[in-house]
Design brief:
The complex is a heterodimer. In chain A, a hairpin with a 2-residue loop joins strand 1 and strand 2. Chain A contains 9 helices and 24 strands. Helices cover 21% and strands 41% of the residues of chain A. In chain A, helix 3 (118-134) packs parallel to helix 4 (203-216). Chain B folds into 2 domains: 2-201, PmbA/TldD superfamily (PmbA/TldD fold), CATH 3.30.2290; 205-433, no CATH class. In chain B, strands 3-2-1-4-5-6 form a 6-stranded antiparallel sheet. Chain B has a 6-stranded mixed sheet with strand order 10-9-8-13-20-19, covered by helices on one side. Classes of the chains: A alpha+beta, B alpha+beta. Strand 3 (62-68) of chain A pairs parallel with strand 2 of chain B.
Chain lengths: 458, 433
């Protein structure tokens, strides 16, 4: 591995000789390991290492960005970014001011997960795979495990010099059941900010997952149409991320006058019970960090408070263009990409209701649990439950095939009429945007109830 | 590379080194204006070894130390899966044109001008629309060596144009877009923007979708929704595991007679083409469905070894991952019916250009469903307007079993799929009241 500390230190003074309105460089080194299973057998096991960097320059509102993983001719690469920015820029640069920071932030994990012996990781995954296969009716299984450790050094023409380390572990297990040409699957997705031990002790959950997949083979399909739906914390977390979180990313708003009208601060988006937060400042979650990839300190940002839009997620540029405070949400998945506005840990704050309070007065509805996927087009969203159950006369009845929920974001937020007291953060999966995927994030919620939600089905 | 191979060969016996280098340049437009110029350079190397019959794997991107790379691969080989295949020996590779030196020669100012031309055409047609556009060019160099004597080395150039427009009225949002890519420089922006203008024209009026089962025409972009479950079913891995609904159907008519599908990495100057796959197996055309009959599946070396088959030359490495079966360029054989005739045939139905969330259903079982991001209503043989708040769902095996017609006008979608529109019947549609 190249010594990126020395490379960055050697460049710090050079960066301050401003030939651009703003100039930054990022250097990164990382290592990862992965283990995958398809079926009974381990399919792939591997290690990787990576190092590289980039330079980004701003001149008269235009950006130049160059990424590389050869460290030769670094000063020329910086000059290239500046030349590119010059040929783009024709207006005025705007960046919200942030105090320059010089700091080293350790990963905070007791043990680098990449260095844990592969034998230990494989042993745990073998146990989980055995459990899946022990359930009658299982056709096959898949397991994807990965871990990483990463060091990123950020330096800017304004004098920031920030070294941050982080670690990440991520697992997705899937049980696939088949009978008479029918195939059904249930997955379990978990992650942690670098603590391998967080993935231990899932034996009971893994068994349940496999049993549910088999049970789905005989479950009926729900009839499509509008229902009252109740989402568990995992799926409600996906909902808040997909349906509202992406809408609050200012890069889609700041140059778009019509979008600014829709997302005007103070507008009522939901009932008074609804509070939505994004915060990288919560310690120890997968979306947590101290500084974002522009060197801005992470803060807790209320997006919705008592149903009103009160904030949004910013990079330094979007904050300046909208005359708002930067929130530290400019993130890049790796040195190959410029930072863009992203979520971190996004959640609905808990209310006062128990689960029974929430379902008690539902005559006919659907209880959706667990995550399968989600996607948004700003106005419209779709997200898929991993498991679904009918609700009849205030009680959870039998399972149905997992449903896909879809709707208009604005109407659906207004239709959330009950919020539980049981906030839980989901650490699995990752987020994709602008070709940068999967970015570690977390999302969460208590149980919530949505009236008149469109459910796909027969 | 030679040094890594000889080090690895000494310690493991069998070894393979794969190196990929890219240089790319991108002009990115945001909100109708040039926003960023971007260049990137990267090189990465992957080492696969077979030690005592087990596979070890390690990659390094950026600067690397050969010994560390070999040591990492050796460590993983202790736990690796059993290698039931041999690396290929020296091979003759077909000539497949994928490099045009003119691509790197396109000046940045010309790339910017192409982007400006696309933005200008769309904004002139629809005032108030905001466009993001990108113009990208690049060159990829690939080298592969293995201990059995396979040697492959080729360069591929690519050039792409794309534009996406967003039109907002109140809280109503319309998303339109089109793109094209090639191994040669592209200059025809009108071909792209004409598609976008047509989308804008068709979306001007609004129409209400019914809530019942209706016929649907999937445009070429829409067909990619049908391809998602099929790609999982034709993947040799899924077949080997017994999870593919097509696994035991080779030689049987599963689809409509009009439906034929193959994979072809040898089409000249297509971004998915190459002389050999990422394991050094020569490229060739692989039939998947011929006149409705299932013909075969896609294999890489490892999966083929497990299944007792031969690799079809579909071993692909995505983002540093070990090789895995993957299509290179899927081709749906065009039919004889024009799009206009399909529309004229339908009393009440939909045209689907884009669904969101379509990959979330039970793909293995062939189910797909999604919310219509861009689609139109057909009434009495005419396109009458855009539909919204509408879910479409179906099962690909039911839908493609009996197809009223396959279109005659095929095009490339996303660089990797060549397909005409497909006219399907009996899709379940539910629309918000």
């Amino acid at each position: 591995m190249p010594d990126i500390d020395a490379i960055a230190a050697g460049l710090a003074d050079h960066l301050k000789k401003r030939r651009a309105d703003y100039l930054e460089a990022r250097f990164e080194e990382s290592e990862t390991s992965h283990i995958t299973y398809r079926g009974r057998e381990l399919e792939s096991i591997g290690r990787s290492s990576s190092s590289g960097g980039n330079a980004r320059a701003l001149v008269k509102g235009g950006w130049g960005f160059t990424s590389f993983n050869s460290f030769a001719n670094l000063k020329e690469r910086l000059s290239l970014a500046i030349t590119q920015a010059r040929s783009v820029g024709s207006g005025q640069s705007a960046l919200a001011p942030v105090p320059p920071a010089v700091e080293t932030v350790p990963s905070g994990v007791a043990r680098n997960p990449v260095e844990i012996p592969l034998a230990d990781k494989k042993k745990l995954l073998d146990e989980y795979n055995e459990i899946i296969w022990s359930v009658p009716g299982i056709q096959t299984s898949s397991i994807y495990y990965s871990d990483s450790r990463k060091k990123v050094i950020f330096l800017s023409s304004e004098g920031s010099f920030i070294t941050q380390e982080r670690a990440d572990v991520n697992i997705r297990l899937t049980a696939i059941a088949a009978k008479d040409g029918e195939v059904q699957q249930v997955g379990l997705s978990l992650g942690s900010r670098g603590e391998f031990s967080a993935l231990k002790g899932l034996h009971h959950q893994v068994k349940e997952m496999a049993q549910k997949a088999v049970a789905l083979l005989t479950a009926p399909q729900a009839k499509g149409g509008e229902y009252t739906v109740v989402l568990d914390p995992v799926l409600a977390g996906v909902f808040v991320h997909e349906a509202f979180g992406h809408l609050s990313e200012s890069d889609f708003v700041y140059e778009n006058d019509r979008m600014r009208e829709i997302m005007v601060l103070g507008k009522q988006f939901g009932s008074e019970k609804l509070n939505i937060v994004d915060s990288a400042a919560e310690p120890g979650l997968r979306g947590s960090f101290k500084y974002d990839d522009e060197g801005t300190r992470a803060v807790k940002t209320y997006l919705i408070r008592q149903g009103k839009l009160v904030g949004r997620l910013h990079s330094r540029e979007t904050a300046a263009r909208m005359n708002e405070k930067p929130t530290g949400n400019a993130r890049a998945i790796s040195y190959r990409f410029p930072p863009i506005v992203r979520m971190t840990n996004t959640y609905i704050e808990p209310g006062a209701l128990s689960f029974n309070d929430i379902i008690g007065d539902i005559k006919e509805g659907i209880y959706c649990k667990n995550w399968y996927g989600g996607m948004t087009s700003m106005e419209m969203f779709t997200f898929s439950a991993g498991e679904s159950y009918l609700i009849r006369n205030g009680k959870v009845a039998g399972p149905v095939r997992p449903v896909m929920l879809t709707g208009n974001v604005f109407n659906t937020l207004q239709n959330i009429d009950a919020i539980g007291d049981d906030l839980d953060m989901n650490q699995g999966g990752g987020c994709g945007k602008g070709g940068q995927s999967p970015l570690p994030v977390s999302n969460g919620s208590p149980h919530i109830r949505i009236r008149r939600c469109l459910v796909g089905g027969k | 590379m030679e040094r890594i191979l000889s080090l690895a060969q000494k310690q493991a016996g069998a070894a393979e080194v794969f190196e990929i280098s890219t240089e790319e340049t991108l002009a990115h437009f945001e909100a109708n204006r040039l926003k960023q110029l971007q260049t990137s350079q990267s090189t990465s190397v992957a080492l696969r070894i077979i030690k005592n019959g087990r596979i070890g794997y390690a990659t390094a991107s950026g600067s690397r130390n050969s010994r560390d790379l070999v040591a990492a691969a050796m460590e993983t080989a202790a736990f690796g899966s059993e290698a039931k295949f041999e690396l290929p020996g020296a091979q003759d590779y077909p000539e497949v044109g994928v490099y045009d030196s003119q691509v790197s020669a396109v000046p940045i100012k010309d790339m910017v001008a192409l982007g400006e031309a696309m933005v200008a055409a769309v904004t002139a047609h629809t005032p108030g629309i905001l466009c993001d556009a990108s113009v990208e060019r690049g060159v990829i160099s690939v080298r592969l060596l293995n201990s059995r004597g396979a040697r492959s080395s080729y360069r591929k150039s690519y050039f792409s144009l794309s534009i996406e427009g967003t039109l907002i009225e109140g809280t109503d949002m319309l998303f339109v877009g089109e793109g094209d890519s090639s191994c040669r420089p592209l200059v025809d922006t009108k071909k792209i923007t004409d598609v976008v203008l047509r989308q804008l024209d068709l979306a001007k009026n609004r129409a209400k979708a019914p809530t019942r089962s209706v016929p649907v025409i999937f445009t070429p972009d829409g067909v990619s929704v049908l391809m998602m479950p099929l790609m999982s079913a034709f993947n040799g891995k899924t077949v080997f595991e017994g999870a593919s609904p097509l696994g035991d159907k080779v030689g049987q008519p599963v689809f409509d007679k009009a439906f034929s599908l193959h994979d072809d990495p040898t089409i000249p100057f297509r971004p998915g083409s190459r002389p050999c796959d990422d394991e050094g197996v020569p490229s060739r055309r692989t039939p998947l469905v011929s006149h409705g009959v299932v013909k075969g599946f896609l294999y890489d070396l490892r999966t083929a070894g497990l299944a007792g088959r031969k690799s079809t030359g579909n071993g692909a490495r995505g983002g540093g991952s070990p090789p895995s079966p993957s299509p290179s360029a899927l081709v749906v054989t065009p039919g004889k019916t024009s799009f206009a005739d399909m529309v004229a045939d339908i009393k009440e139905g939909l045209v689907i250009e884009q669904l969101i969330g379509a990959g979330q259903g039970n793909l293995l079982g062939g189910d797909f469903s999604g919310n219509v991001l861009l689609g139109y209503k057909i009434e009495n043989g005419k396109l009458v307007g855009r539909v919204k708040d509408t879910m479409v769902s179906g099962n690909v095996y039911q839908v493609l079993k009996d197809i009223p017609a396959i279109g005659s006008e095929a095009k490339w979608v996303g660089g990797m799929l060549y397909t005409p529109p497909i006219y399907c019947q009996g899709l379940s549609v539910s629309s918000k009241a």
